[in-house]
Amino acid sequence: MAEVKDYKQLNGLALAYMGDAVYEKFIREYLLAAGKTKPNQLHKTATKFVSAKGQAVALKAMIAEGFLTDEEDRIAKRGRNAKSYTIPKNTDPGTYSMSTSFEAVLGYLYLAGDMERLQEWMEKALEIVEKGVEITNGTRK
């Protein structure tokens, strides 16, 4: 991995850019390890986790549980307050802002080299989103 100097100075969108890739890779590996191999099944299931809605739900629950450190809270706010001029048409600005916030923290942890805490974040998010899937669908998939 190439070292990103001054990662602490990156804006929220740059951190989210990195966090998006890190989380996507984590989810893909998780789904393959769970035995999901059909492309359509992989895509549909992955979308529940990596969608703006899934990430926003995870972050809100993590905040409510007091999961974030003070530093992570500051990074999350930096990500939430970042001004993006393109918002996906299927997402409201508040949800998109929260998902950017979530991704910014993941990007920050990754660039900081704090893989242990990054793993905790991704596992916690996975747990939260899976519970949401159970409630929504009535069964765990």
UniProtKB/TrEMBL annotation:
<dbReference type="GO" id="GO:0006364">
    <property type="term" value="P:rRNA processing"/>
</dbReference>
<feature type="active site">
    <location>
        <position position="20"/>
    </location>
</feature>
<dbReference type="GO" id="GO:0005737">
    <property type="term" value="C:cytoplasm"/>
</dbReference>
<comment type="similarity">
    <text>Belongs to the MrnC RNase family.</text>
</comment>
<keyword id="KW-0460">Magnesium</keyword>
<dbReference type="GO" id="GO:0004525">
    <property type="term" value="F:ribonuclease III activity"/>
</dbReference>
<keyword id="KW-0378">Hydrolase</keyword>
<comment type="subunit">
    <text>Homodimer.</text>
</comment>
<keyword id="KW-0694">RNA-binding</keyword>
<keyword id="KW-0699">rRNA-binding</keyword>
<keyword id="KW-0963">Cytoplasm</keyword>
<comment type="function">
    <text>Involved in correct processing of both the 5' and 3' ends of 23S rRNA precursor. Processes 30S rRNA precursor transcript even in absence of ribonuclease 3 (Rnc); Rnc processes 30S rRNA into smaller rRNA precursors.</text>
</comment>
<dbReference type="InterPro" id="IPR036389">
    <property type="entry name" value="RNase_III_sf"/>
</dbReference>
<feature type="domain" description="RNase III">
    <location>
        <begin position="2"/>
        <end position="134"/>
    </location>
</feature>
<keyword id="KW-0540">Nuclease</keyword>
<protein>
    <recommendedName>
        <fullName>Mini-ribonuclease 3</fullName>
        <ecNumber>3.1.26.-</ecNumber>
    </recommendedName>
</protein>
<dbReference type="InterPro" id="IPR000999">
    <property type="entry name" value="RNase_III_dom"/>
</dbReference>
<keyword id="KW-0255">Endonuclease</keyword>
<dbReference type="Pfam" id="PF00636">
    <property type="entry name" value="Ribonuclease_3"/>
</dbReference>
<dbReference type="GO" id="GO:0019843">
    <property type="term" value="F:rRNA binding"/>
</dbReference>
<keyword id="KW-0698">rRNA processing</keyword>
<keyword id="KW-0690">Ribosome biogenesis</keyword>
<dbReference type="InterPro" id="IPR008226">
    <property type="entry name" value="Mini3_fam"/>
</dbReference>
